Amino acid sequence: MVKVENEVKSTQNETSDEQLIARFQKGDNYAFDLLVKRYKDPLMNFIFRFLGDKNEAEDIVQETFLRLYKNKHYYKEIAKFSTWIYTIASNLAKTELRKRKRRKFFSIHQFMQTEKDYDIPDDSFSPDQQANTVITDKLIQQAIDKLSPKFKQVIILRDIQEFSYEEIAEVVDIPLGTVKSRVNRARLKLQEYLKDLEIQP
Amino acid sequence: MPMTSCDTVLSKLSSYIEGHLNAPQKDAIFEHLKECHTCNRIFSDVTNIKSFLHRSQKVSTSLDFDKNLRNRIITDGGAGKSKAPRSISFGLSGVAVAAILYFIVSTTFITGDNQANPGDSKMQMSGYEQQETPPNANSAPAIADEKNEGSVESKSDTLIQKKAFDSERINLIDQER
Questions:
Q1: Which end of chain A has fewer CB atoms at under 10 Å, N or C?
Q2: A21 within domain boundaries
């Protein structure tokens, strides 16, 4: 009876991620399309918050799906599919951040203009000079950009993507206690950056 | 009841906000927040920031996302396409083959004077020059014009010939890949 119910559920577009990836591994490309539809916006939101640049974020999300397409057989049902795909996206984003740092170090930006200039953290962001300013999405993103990658990653996954601590621990591959500690410290740092602003619930 | 320090309260703030503490710990922090204005302010701000992040504007992919992804898969993600390490080794072997061929050809013609049949080597040299002449015939004047460097000397012609020959070789390696 349970099996029948599950089959009915499947036909009613409530197929689980794990079922979709299994079908994709067997050659069903439509299953891949469904996974893209499900995850492209959540991944985009995560990566955008992490990198602070929409174009780069979209590039990373595309690369994530490209890797899924090419390496579908690497997925094993030991972990949740969502954990797996977020791990890929997260690692690509961290690599991009490292590249950005190297580019900044060797930058010849002052000698030539390029169309795709990377985002430089806004040094003009000074909350102490913006007292009584109401917090906005832009200001909070600027504060997030100031966090180090290890804090950025966990706070976005926890407070924006609403991952559980256990899921974050799997994605980031750190102990549960470390996740909780980093989330707490990230929140305290954000509070420090934004303390002079009017933070309305 | 022992006083709870600000450091202890702040280190457990998230757990307190999310309800992960046991009753005695919760009570201790509650009492501290009643008395400590600074910690209470931090607690209030963190709660509000958390709530703000939860409700923050969600960013979506562009309208061209699906189309661009499809194109990327077609050009780069075909099933069975060789992975980077394999293509690098194949490319390296192609480079090695090209280098060996270049070495053989160059040494064969450069040492042409010492060969048993100088006539043949001369023909080969002519063939070599002939092979290189067409690029030079068209390109040298064009390059000279483009660069606007005045008269083109014979030595620079030779360098241009060599460059044209090298770039042909590079294209070949790419074709071999």
A1: N
A2: yes
Q: Do the Cβ atoms of A20 and A31 come closer than 8 Å? A: yes
B88-131, pLDDT tens digit by residue? 555 566 777 778 888 888 888 766 555 545 444 444 444 444 44
A29's tokens = 């490309």
Contact A54, A48 (CB under 8 A): yes
A80 and A160 part of one domain: no
- Does the distance separating the beta carbons of A201 and B47 come in below 8 Å? yes
- In a shared domain, residues A168 and A193: yes
Cβ-based contacts of B69 with chain A (< 8 Å): 36, 62, 65-66
Instruction: Kindly report the nearest CA distance between residue A174 and chain B, in angstroms.
Output: 18
Closest residue in chain A to residue B59, using alpha carbons only? A45
Beta-bridge partners for A198: A134
Q: Which helix (H) or strand (E) element contains residue B133?
A: helix B118-147
How many domains are there within chain A? 2
- The answer to whether residue A156 is domain-embedded is yes
Residues of A143-159 as b/e, b for ≥16 C-beta within 10 angstroms?
bbbebeeebbbbbbbbb
CA B149 to CA B140: how far, in whole Å? 11
**Same-domain check for residues A25 and A67:** yes
Residue type at position A23:
R
Question: From residue B84, how far is each of A4, A30, A87, B81, B88 by CA, in Å?
Answer: 45, 27, 21, 9, 6
**pTM for the complete prediction?**
0.64
Most confident of A27-41, A92-106, B100-114: A27-41
Is A113 within the bounds of a domain? Answer: no
User: How many A-B residue pairs are in contact by the CB < 8 A criterion?
Assistant: 90
Contact call for A61 and B61, based on CB within 8 A: yes
Whether B177 and B87 have beta carbons less than 8 Å apart is answered as yes
Token pair listed for A66: 């490209």
Q: Phi/psi of residue A198, each to 5°?
A: -90, 105
Three-state secondary-structure class, residue B126 = helix
d(CA B25, CA B16): 8
Range of the domain at A191: 120-201
Give A123's DSSP letter: T
For residue B67, the distance in angstroms to the closest alpha carbon of chain A comes to 11
